[in-house]
Amino acid sequence: MYRLKRQFLAGPYLLWVAGFILLPLAFILYYAFTTDGGGFTLSQITAIADPVHVKSLLLSLKLGFFCTVVCLLLAYPLCLILSRFHFRHQSFVVFLFILPMWMNFMLRILAWRLLLSNSGLINSLFELVGIGRVKMLNTQLSVVFGMVYDFLPFMVLPIYNSMARINKDVVEAAKDLGANSLTVLVKIVIPLTLSGIISGIIMVFVPALTSFVISDLLGGGKVLLIGNVIEQEFMQGMNWHLGSGLSVVLMVFVIASMALLNIFDKDGGGAAVW
Amino acid sequence: MLKKRIIPAFCAVTAVCTLAACGTFAACGTGAADRSGAASDADNGTLVVLNYGKYLDHSVIRMFEEETGIDIKLEEYESPEEMYTKFSSGSIRYDVVCTSDYMVERLISEGQVAEIDFSGFSYYDNLNPEIIEASQIFDPENKYSMPYFYGTLGILYNTTMVPEEETDTWSILWDEKYADSIIMQNSVRDTFVPALRLLGYDINTEDQSQIEEAVQLLIEQKPIVYAYYVDETADEVAAGNAAMALVYSGEAAYAAELNEDLAYSVPREGSNLWIDSWFIPADSQNKENAQKFLDFLCREDAAMLNFEYVWYGTPNLKVIEQLDEETLSDATIFPTEEILADCVVYKQFDQDTTDRYNYLWKMLKSE
């Protein structure tokens, strides 16, 4: 009886999963493998080999990679500082990093567009100090910048969590045995936070790889990621079959990158965050 | 063409929702239709109108409801493609729809449009015969559609950065001097117009080599383009982020309100003439009411209210008679005869050509 009740409680969630995850997924798969007439085809999938699609997929991978590296380089030292040094209001500082997530991410990106634009605030400042206008908006760099800005908290949180879990005694024991700070970092801290790092990488790389809104808003339509190609097929080209086919390929890339990273993630501790 | 002020991203979000909610969508749609059906018992029936956002004065709706006792239920949309999706999902039966020329043509060819019986109209003669004639490119016998507003595609420029005489030709959009301060439209057909006209080709060309020549020209242009925008174009130019942009005359009129330094020009090589038109869907349940509504829109007072609300070029001659010289000479609202002579309405491409354009467009964007 108790077990039945518990299963019943999962009902709404299962309905949600069925209606909004499995059903759309089934639609996508159906469209991906059919033609307009309804016949079976693989051409929507093999369309990824088209030079234009390859180009935008490679660009997505490249920008996603840079975004992830920058996030990691920013987040790891930050987490080290946050967890290592004890100062007052430590949790408040962590809170500050999460605070931007309370605002809609699109609004934040729109704000950046205003700041980075040709006659925006930053360029006005540049002109004031005599540097002159710099073209910042609508470049690959501005897109990566927007991604880093949006996804950084997803890197900080899992790493910080795994770091906070490290028993201080372990670090002290290492030091007692003569390890210097670098050895402690390389041999103790990094291995113990590996699961957090991997979670962070997945949580940043996957949305960066599939993103299309940020490249639309900060790329000015000049940076065509694979997400933008898919969006265009659905919205302008009215070619749902091709859009779905490319989506399936993208899904494969996402799953592959997650599987690859999971090999390194032995204890799976960090996965709890997502 | 339309007053669309949203960000493409929102469209995308809508798309995702539409996809995710295909099932639920149909359900809500039926609900809405049921409600409108229920209201019809009380009076002279209802009319479900589908139109661009902010494209119909609300007092016109009230006037029509008071005079005829017909209840209007207004539905709005942002882009012709969105209209097409809404319309063909079939969840709501629309009685009368306003949309862009090429979309009307597409729906006519799909057999989704009913003929309009203009012989029963009292005010159809108020409409400019020239605009009705220009509509023949998408409605050859003028029996499926009624023009509502029209305008051109041209260059919106900032007079403090660009001298007027230079905007006389599309080649200004390729001028290195204006690198990083040119905005193009993030839509296939519009952005191809300057390239095709500079090469001397028809904007409705289906010739593969001509289209490919045009895309080469656009690829050359891409490094000096600041951005490809849709809805934000006018705002960006008004804010001074760009010196000029390819825009519809309606957008230009809106931008000129925001910033008085802005002006609009249609280059001498010729451009696109757009005509937003009304049509009655073949499966409309209230065709008579729809005809009454269209006739009412041609009536002087209603047309005047709509013109003052929308501020685009109206085909209604009775309205034009009452306008002052300044309004009439505003080329942003009413293109001159000379300009109109070089402007052509978009024709809907066949599927192969559409696919080719879309592919070359992707190629341009991925450069």
Task: Give the tags.
heterodimer; A: 274 residues; mainly alpha; MetI-like fold; 14 helices; disordered C terminus; B: 367 residues; alpha/beta; D-Maltodextrin-Binding Protein, domain 2; 2 domains; 11-stranded mixed β-sheet; 16 helices; globular; disordered N terminus
What does this structure look like?
The complex is a heterodimer of chains A (274) and B (367). Chain A is mainly α and 274 residues long. Chain A is 74% helix and 0% strand. Chain A has a single domain, classed as MetI-like (MetI-like fold). Chain A has helices at residues 2-9, 11-32, 43-46, 51-84, 90-98, 105-116, 121-128, 140-164, 168-176, 181-192, 194-210, 213-219, 226-235, 240-264. In chain A, helix 4 (51-84) runs antiparallel to helix 11 and helix 9 runs antiparallel to helix 10 (181-192). The radius of gyration of chain A is 23 Å and the shape is globular. Chain B folds into two domains: 9-149 and 275-328, D-Maltodextrin-Binding Protein, domain 2, CATH 3.40.190; 151-272 and 334-366, D-Maltodextrin-Binding Protein, domain 2 (3-Layer(aba) Sandwich). Helices cover 44% and strands 18% of the residues of chain B. In chain B, strands 1, 2, 3, 4, 5, 6, 7, 8, 9, 10 and 11 form an eleven-stranded mixed beta sheet that branches. Residues 1-42 of chain B have low confidence and may be disordered.
Secondary structure elements and their pairing?
The complex is a heterodimer of chains A (274) and B (367).
Chain A: H1 2-9, H2 11-32, H3 43-46, H4 51-84, H5 90-98, H6 105-116, H7 121-128, H8 140-164, H9 168-176, H10 181-192, H11 194-210, H12 213-219, H13 226-235, H14 240-264
Helix pairs in contact in A: 2-14, 4-8, 4-11, 6-12, 8-11, 8-12, 9-10, 11-14, 13-14
Chain B: H1 8-20, H2 22-39, E1 46-52, H3 58-68, E2 71-77, H4 80-89, E3 96-100, H5 101-109, E4 113-114, H6 129-134, E5 145-158, E6 182-185, H7 188-198, H8 208-221, E7 225-229, H9 233-238, E8 244-248, H10 249-258, E9 262-265, E10 271-281, H11 287-298, H12 300-310, H13 317-322, H14 325-328, H15 337-341, E11 343-344, H16 351-366
Parallel strand pairs in B: 1-2, 1-3, 6-7, 6-8, 10-11
Antiparallel strand pairs in B: 3-10, 4-10, 5-8, 5-9, 5-10
